[in-house]
Amino acid sequence: LPPKFCASVYFSLLYKPRGLHIDRVTNEILLVDRGNPTGSKVLRLDSSTEDATKIIATVVAEGDGDNLNHGIELHGGYLYASSPTTVYRWSYTAGQTNASTDRQEVVISMNRENKDDLGAPLGHSTRTLAIDEEGRYLYVSIGSVGNVDNDSFRSRIRRFDISTWDGVTPIEFLDGEVFADGLRNEVGLAFDSFGKLWGVENSADNLKRSDLGGDIHNENPAEELNDFPEEQAGQHWGYPYCWTEFSLPEQDGGMGAGTVWAWPSFMNDGTHTDEWCRENTNPVRDNVSIFSTAYCLSKC
Predict the structure, then answer these.
(1) How does pLDDT run across 67-103, given as a tens digit for each residue?
(2) Peptide bond into 84 cis (omega under 30)
(3) pLDDT tens-digit series, residues 227-245
(4) How many helices (H) and strands (E) does the chain have?
(5) How far separated are the first and last CA of the chain, in Å rounded?
């Protein structure tokens, strides 16, 4: 850990904790706990009023058999959570002591397998959620089906205008706007105080390029911290055709962290060269490249 930082166990009586939300207004801590024998749940963790060192877990929503597995958000009096197939929401009041039972389906068919109307079945099953400050858009990120797919069809952030939603008829996944394309697994999303969306991307594994030193997977590709300006909505960020350098020796051709290169399996397809990647995809913004062993939300 960096100097003056320490780690301690905050709460341990969990099964498979995953998504975590700390509310900016109330400071409430909410999390998705998977693997509970009685079904996945959303818990709120509170300090005891009698003993501040004692943490109390309160169930505020239940997934039953719906396998809530990652995504969690809180906005406008509603708690949002996701399963591999569906984004749900429940009414929520700060400090409530009972589980909400008025579950609604917000986005459906995320895992549809119809080849003519394909969703995102198999592969990465987590669905990361974010909602902007105005509560207009619900953002949903879904990762790849494998290590390196043939295209970016599912490796995207889609957004859904929930400000005009009737609250009754679920929104079809494929009706969502493609806000950011070509992101292998943007498993962490958050808005900053200026209203800009940021994401943490888990990049691909098993990278080998004979012209750059052979087996270079231990330190490449870089994991990425991306920011997504509104004016770049709909643009492509590189996956699966391109990858970002973290650390390559100069004698092997390294050009420095943040340099974009073509993935080897696409280099001879007549389109996706190193030059194409640098000219046609968004680079890592703010010159930030993060190696997986240094910082990683969920490498999978």
Answers:
(1) 899 999 999 999 999 999 999 999 999 999 999 999 9
(2) no
(3) 999 999 999 999 999 999 9
(4) 1, 21
(5) 23
Q: Compute the radius of gyration of the chain from its Cα atoms.
A: 20
CA dihedral over 103, 127, 106, 233, signed as positive or negative:
positive
| Spatial distance between the Cα atoms of 290 and 200, rounded to a whole number of angstroms | 9
Please report which confidence band the pLDDT of residue 284 belongs to, taking 50, 70 and 90 as the band edges.
low
Between CA 160 and CA 137 the distance in angstroms is 5
Query: Which residues fall within 8 angstroms of residue 185, CB to CB, at 6 or more apart?
Result: 124, 141, 143, 144, 155, 201, 202, 300
Exposed, middle or buried, 85 (CB in 10 Å: 0-12/13-18/19+)? buried
DSSP single-letter state for residue 195: S
Closest CA to 71 of 27, 30, 24, 36: 30
Which amino acid, 2?
A: P
* pTM: predicted TM-score of the whole model, two decimal places: 0.90
At 172 the three-state DSSP class reads strand
Residue 102 DSSP class: -
